[in-house]
Prior knowledge:
The protein is α+β, with helices and mostly antiparallel strands and 143 residues long. It has one domain. Helices cover 50% and strands 24% of the residues. It has helices at 3-56, 126-142; strands spanning 61-64, 70-74, 81-87, 94-103, 107-114. Strand 3 (81-87) and strand 4 (94-103) form a beta hairpin. The protein is elongated. The protein starts with a helix and ends with a helix.
Amino acid sequence: MEVAELRQQILREIDRARVEAGERRKNADSAHAAYAKFIVEVAGPLVVQTVNILRAEGLTLQAQTPAGAARIAADMAADDFIEFVLDTSVRPPRVLGRSSLSIGRHNVVVDEMPIAPGTPIANLQDSDLLPFLVPAVGRLAAR
């Protein structure tokens, strides 16, 4: 292979990789902005409402909604929680529902489920969270 031809191929690949990296950063920034809005407007209020219902039923859980997070946590066990997290390991980024339950002293079972696969983060609504949230709350309440 001639040096000039190899050089051209390498330079084209470098340009392609730079463009792709720029697009990835742009998409990640958009996903983080959409996720922040999702937490404030959708997941946070739903978490608070869910915890209020559970407390009325005598369960000791707390809503944790610091900036960028929405979580239902057990008062007595740090490993018992339900949360909504941003998953940027896939393209396009998505929201995952994650539940964690401790079983005994040393076993922790973590379950993750994509929330409304194929739906852009900006379009997620509270009804999209229910197929994950309701069964996870049932498992958390039964512990």
